[in-house]
Amino acid sequence: MRTIVKFVFNTKCLVFLALLCAQFVSAQDVQISGIVTSPDGKPIPFVNVIVKGTPTGVSADMDGNYAISAASNATLVFSSIGFQAQEIAVNGQTTINITLAEDVAQLEEVIVVGYGTQKKKDLTSSISIVDASQIQKRQTTTVAESLQGLATGVSVRGGGQPGQEAKIEIRGLKNLQNSNPLYVIDGNITTANRDFNPNDIETIQILKDAAAAAIYGSRAANGVIIITTKKGKKGPLKIEASSKLSITNVPTYNLAGRDEFVAITNMSYDNAGMERQNFNMDVNTDWQDEVFRTGMIQDQNVSFSGGGDNSSFFMSANYFGNEGTVIDTDFDRISFRVNSSGKKGIFSVGENLALSNSKANETGGPEAMRGNPFIDAIRMYPTIPVRDDRNPGGYGYGEQGVANTFAANPVAIANLIDQKIENFRIRGNFWAELQPWKALKYRFNFGYESSFDHFVYLRKVGNWTLNQPIDPSLTNQNRAQSQTKLFENTLTFTQDFGKHNITLLAGTTYQKDTYEQQNGQKRNLLINPNTGSYFTVLDLGDNPQVGGFKNESLLLSYLGRLEYNYDNRYLLNAVIRRDGSSRFSDANKWASFPSVSAGWRISNESFFKSDKINDLKLRVSYGELGSGNIGQYEYMAFINTFGGAVFGNDQNVSPAATQVRLANSQLKWETLKQTNFGFDLAMYENRLAITADYFIAKTEDVLFGFPILMSTGNDGGNPISNAATVQNKGFELNIAYNDKIGDDFSYNAGINFTSLRNKLVSLGNGLNESFSGNTVTRAGQPVGMWYVLRTDGIFQNEAEVAAHVNSQGQQIQPDALPGDIRYKDLNDDGEITNEDKNIAGNPWPDFEMGFNAGFTYKDFDFSMNWIGSFGADVYNGYSSIVDVINGDHNYRAGVQPWTPENPNTSTPRAFNGTSLSNRGDTDRFIEKGDFVRLKYVGVGYNFPKKLIEQIGFDRARLSFSAQNIITITKYGGLDPEFVNNNIFERGVDFGSFPNVRTFSVGVEFGF
To answer: How far apart are the first and last CA of the chain?
Structure first.
């Protein structure tokens, strides 16, 4: 028995000792190292690495590298702001590399708003946040163009001309002057036009409703886009470089070849009883091939950043070059940026400075319907040679009896007219902060922007159209400088009182804008006999003309804001701003613009119980914004001092002055009043996010100059008045979902939807309607409705012509022949006149949408962006030329004009001459502008760290992308996504530069 007990005891001791040894071995510390990266392969600096359950921890360096000692059976916890925390069991490993997934909720937690920041979850107004990386993937010239399809309520239309700036509207048409939003870059009131480098963007927010934008008062009626540029971070010097090369090509028309053109033109002359032209059949010019070419874009960017405990810096340089798809068009930009900041105790100081120089070579002629290559290329005959030594300048164009056309030779215009504009811009701000207590901060901001512009127009000797007079050479040049100085002082108080959180902001701003220009002109320029080039310096030539002017305006403002948060459930935001502008008379200089918004976070209420819903917030807001978007001296009378008066028997001429422009001293601010209802919803651990808004916006006292008769004595343009009232109602919806499957695959998808209805409530000034081109704007209807003659098929025989009568039996079109268009006599007066026009369509889309999706698998990533527009009626200017068979231009390939043998066609008979069938103001050329477009698609690959470390890089990435390669539409023009800057004719596509197809390859690396 004793032996058994001893054996059991000894066995237990051995087991105990074995377990103790095993525990000792397993508890031995091991040295673990590795790198922490983001899903796109970039290292994440300063990641916290903690041994779970212990105080032991380290921080990764600037390049994401870390090293830590831990027990072989321990667990490491990796965490960083903006990324989801992740736990990894050591299991005896000595190398652990990890990729942290982005935490979208955290990334969007704090955003920049006017004169401060807010947590996204505490927003009570409508603000869209755009991922800067999505903008920088695209190959575009401006920020606005890159925003397309990425935010609800933001409509963007761009074009393919080098240096062309996109048109952007935030929540529809707010007034009748200009729809450009206000840009705020690093606190500076400025623009983000074609000389701004989008690669510098760190974050971008779009303030859409009046409550969000109210802090900017009178300048924010068209919305606000807030951009912050990249800043340096603590750590050693970091160098990032990228290079992108793109090939572009433009869509072209399918035009008739020489033989088809000649046959159809002969038919039009035969039907008119005219002698045929003696075409030069030895010529077969493809004008599109002569004018359009393959373009190229290159975008080179390099940046340097770093910092210490109390200071940081960021520097970048960029070259952007765009050789256009149209001959003699290009755009070049070189830009530099320096951002730095420092802190000493309670004092902080910093600056943001950007320099840029851009050059644009633009095409265009001085006459209507001439100089636009997309019009010239379809109006020129294929039987006209590009060059003809018999003509002044040596270019081919119309010839009586051989080519009876007044179309312009686009190659001649490109070579005989040079238009170049160069712009050097200085843009930046200096700021200083003093924070004596945690709750109180004073900030001073000085913003400065200066632009030096140089425009040169050179018209060489030579002609480009038939019967053109031989003009001497001419140069017209101007040099201009604009300056903006901004002084801002703000005081911010933030304090928690138990469950109450209060933030108070008060401040003043002062802005001064000046613009001055000097211009000169000379003719009969000297020519270098060796090179044939023209001397364009203004001290050469004759017939000198000089001119110049200077404008100046001031804006003084007072602002205040209250933010209140109770227990993270009840939110209140109130803003008041008072603006005074020198653009108005003393009686109307000042106006106040208030706003208030509130939010209720239902998900934080005790009664709300849901495992699936992480956040649910209701929002409501009301705000008023002003706009003084008029010239500097509109309220003053304009006097012409160059007049003369004859008096006395000797008929002596005496100096005289006369008022040439009517003045309106009662001009005042136009006011936008907007109400917004919305909600924010996050579900399934924030993987699903839904935001919806409904808004009503009305702009009263809209500033606009409606046409008046010159017999009133007005000879200086239409005087501005507070006339119209414009209203917009809209609904916005954004749905986004992101998730991760396993450790290697993550994906995201999002769709945004915008529906908007605008109408002109009233025109004011006693007007009921206003006409522009083929449109009419009437009270109670949308702006720029189509107003044209209505067609009713084609007469097939004489009997149909005779049977087309009004209610009184009068023949409506007695001169018509079979093959002519039948029109509707809407006023029943027995004839077709302008009185028979009526509304035939709406140029505004019913809704627009964007779809964005992407995924990441290991080192590969993919993303795409689709946009769509539905419901708009547009005018096809291309069709209004090529489908009119009158012998004045080329035609659509395969066009089948009406003949007795070909009656089943929508194209009327060919006829050279004036005819109702050849009119352009008919519904025949109004089409549906619906389209869906693959705006961007791209794939990227991040090279493995072990591979690139051998050549000294921390990261390297290769990407391929394409833009505008798929468009689904029934529109017959080149591009349904065209832009027209005339508000009243926004749906007219008459030679608009189409978006180009772009194929890009890019490489990025850092070390």
So the answer is: 75
Residue with token string 């991760």: 740
C-alpha dihedral over 437, 438, 439, 443, to 10 degrees? 80
Joined together, the tokens standing for residue 967 give 């468009």
Report, in angstroms and rounded to the nearest whole number, the Rg of the chain calculated over CA atoms: 34
Instruction: Report residue 787 as tokens.
Output: 């107003």
Residues 454 and 422: beta-carbon distance below 8 Å: yes
Residues 756, 731: Cα–Cα separation, whole Å: 7
Report the length, in residues, of the chain.
1007
pLDDT of residue 369: 58
Q: Is residue 203 part of a domain?
A: yes
In the chain, the number of structural domains is 2
Residue 250 vs residues 156, 287, 378, 928: alpha-carbon distances, Å:
20, 14, 15, 22
- For residues 127 and 175, membership in a common domain is answered with yes
What b/e sequence results for 825-850 when a residue is b if at least 16 CB atoms lie within 10 Å of its CB, and e otherwise? beeeebebeeebbbbbbbbbbeebbb
Query: What pLDDT was estimated at residue 721?
Result: 84
Phi, psi of 931, deg, nearest 5: -160, 155
User: Please, which residues have CB within 8 angstroms of residue 491's CB and are 6 or more apart in sequence?
Assistant: 440, 441, 442, 443, 505, 506, 507
Please report the pLDDT score of residue 73 as a whole number: 86
- Domain boundaries, position 50: 27-99
Tokens for 748, please give them. 């995201």
Residue 64's domain is classified under what CATH number? Answer: 2.60.40.1120
Residue with tokens 């066609």: 905
Specify the DSSP class assigned to residue 884: S
3-state helix, strand, coil in the chain (%, to 5): 10, 50, 35
CA–CA dist 56, 67 (Å, integer):
12
Which of 598, 596, 606, 595 lies closest to 570 in space, CA to CA? 598
The phi-psi region of residue 328 (left if phi > 0; otherwise alpha if psi is between -120 and 50; otherwise beta) is left
Query: Tokens 């001085």 — which residue?
Result: 366
Residues 64 and 31 in one domain: yes
Question: In this structure, are residues 359 and 319 in contact, taking their beta carbons and an 8 Å threshold?
Answer: no
Q: CA 908, CA 599: separation in Å to the nearest integer? A: 61
Residues of the chain with pLDDT under 70: 1-28, 40, 62, 81-82, 102-109, 178-179, 364-369, 710, 712-716
Domain identity same for 172 and 214: yes
User: Is 505:488 a contact under the CB 8 Å cutoff?
Assistant: no
* Angstrom distance (rounded) from CA 683 to CA 612: 5
List Cα–Cα distances, 691 to 153, 608, 617, in angstroms.
12, 20, 10
Q: Which two tokens stand for residue 119?
A: 């947590």
For 774, residues 6+ apart whose C-beta sits below 8 A from its C-beta are 786, 787, 788, 875, 920, 921, 985, 988
CB 836 within 8 A of CB 806: no
Claim to verify: residue 127 and residue 234 sit in the same structural domain: yes
Closest CA to 739 of 690, 684, 687: 687
Tokens matching residue 102: 């982005």
Paired tokens of 476: 């017209």
Residue with tokens 């001290």: 539
Domain edge (last residue) among 54, 78, 99: 99
Q: What are phi and psi of 946, to 5 degrees?
A: -60, -35
Residue-wise pLDDT tens digits, 610-619 = 888 999 999 9
